[in-house]
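Appendix B, Record 12. Input sequence as logged:
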Amino acid sequence: MFWVYILLCEDNSLYTGFTDDIKHRIYSHYHRLKSAAKYTKSHKVCGISALWKTESETGARKLEYRIKQLPKAKKLLLIENPDRISGFFPELSEFEFFPESDIEFEDCI
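Logged structural output:
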């Protein structure tokens, strides 16, 4: 299973990434480990804004890339409507993405 996520940082900025181990990855970002992204080392993570799972690594990578290209206003719309992911990115219709709400930020840190 692969995950695409949008994290909220303390300065209200958003960080998008993908992983095959969501709890470990969020832990890394939150604690600013060596393996964390450069961005989250300088922007403290304070929550999960959106999370999708997929069985396709290629799909996860492509979705991460597409989300990163969005302006913040569109990312916020996507966060409000995570189940409409296919409407935001019809070019990724060959992949299935499932919004995930069972993983709590506190369980990852």
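The chain has a mean pLDDT of 96.
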